[in-house]
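Title: Comparing notes on inverse folding

I've been comparing how different people in this forum approach sequence design from structure. To keep things fair, I'm posting one structure and asking everyone to reply with a full sequence. Here's the target:
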């Protein structure tokens, strides 16, 4: 019985190897390689576009930060001017 199991196992293994070795032709392998190259090119293109988008976003962030700083400075100056006007008004009321 043991020899029979070994024989069946051997025949099955050999059959599987023969079946698997004949599955892909050279043309199919070349097609897969070309598809892989196309995918790699697409990935590289996406990487470069992402890097450009990141650079643009960083520039926009810098511009927004400068605009915020300018707005804060303007708000501070407006508050100082408002205080000066209040003081001048109070002085004029005391006279």
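Reply #1:
Here's my take.
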């Amino acid at each position: 019985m043991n020899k029979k199991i070994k024989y069946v196992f051997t025949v099955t293994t050999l059959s599987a190897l023969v079946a698997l070795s004949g599955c892909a032709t050279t043309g199919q392998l070349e097609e897969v390689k070309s598809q892989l190259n196309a995918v790699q090119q697409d990935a590289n293109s996406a990487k470069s576009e992402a890097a450009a988008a990141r650079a643009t976003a960083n520039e926009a962030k810098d511009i927004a930060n400068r605009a915020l700083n300018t707005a804060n400075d303007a708000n501070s100056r407006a508050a100082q001017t408002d205080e000066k006007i209040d003081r001048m008004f109070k002085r004029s009321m005391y006279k």
